[in-house]
Specification:
The chain is 31% helix and 26% strand. It is an alpha/beta fold. The strands form 4 sheets. Strands 10-9-11-8-12 form a 5-stranded mixed beta sheet, with helices on both faces. It has a 3-stranded parallel beta sheet with strand order 6-3-7, sandwiched between helices. The longest helix has 16 residues.
Length: 296
Amino acid sequence: MNARSRPIIAVLMTVLVGLLSGCVTNNEGLVPVVSGVDIHRVDAIADQLPPQIAASGRLAVGVNVPYAPNEFKDDQGNIVGFDVDLMNAIGQVLGLTADFKQADFDKIIPAVQSGTFNVGMSSFTDTLEREKSVDFVTYYRAGVQWAQRPGDAVDPNDACGLRVGVQTTTIEDIEEVPAKSDACVAAGQPPIGKIKYDSQDDVANALILGRIDALSADSPVTAYAIKRSDGRIVTAGAVFDSAPYGWVVAKGSPLGPVLQQAMQHLIDGGQYRQIAEAWGVEAGVIETSVINGATS
């Protein structure tokens, strides 16, 4: 999903420390610093904010790390990533400071529902099932991408009996791999051994060390893990099951339309693409942000 175009951004790439003990960690490699993106408060959009949020001057954003390149920590412990830069840009349009608050992935949606967070931002796939309880403001489109060790021959469509690593509570954990495993059993084949890990770092390390046969993750996440693996992980098959990412807001919240308008402003003004290009993820950019864009 990676490409490069429009050299309007000045991107400073800082090379961090190399791999240790055969492992890969999310803040190794290249972390772009985006500059030259002109963003200002847009009164016509910001004035529609719920009064309580506007008065606070802050947007409480629930996030789970690490899930590079979308959200993770750099060597100084700062939360960084494509999603982070984009949400900071949304904050500028709305005249707010994005206040990123770490939480377990499976606790973010309940926290948005309870009002603890204004927004959930953690590479959430917008699905019809999730839309029953919360609303989504779409901002990206990603698919699923498997990875394997070099020399192996893993087919995501014929993985019966293999050990496949996933990050817990992701779509790959909840839906994609279980569905493939059920199909194996229905065909009289052994099930897929789904191995769950708390972080994507742990999944990648398990694959490198031979504890699993393959990993399944969102396409930009798998691409980033491969880039940081120094050739010890490669793709297995093509990207499939493309679906929208969305920011989570409470069901029927007036904040949803405001975020959608701010996102569309960044799309139309080109700043969105500039940020995506800096992270090398522009292949998944969208042209129109919508509320609840799931089709499955």
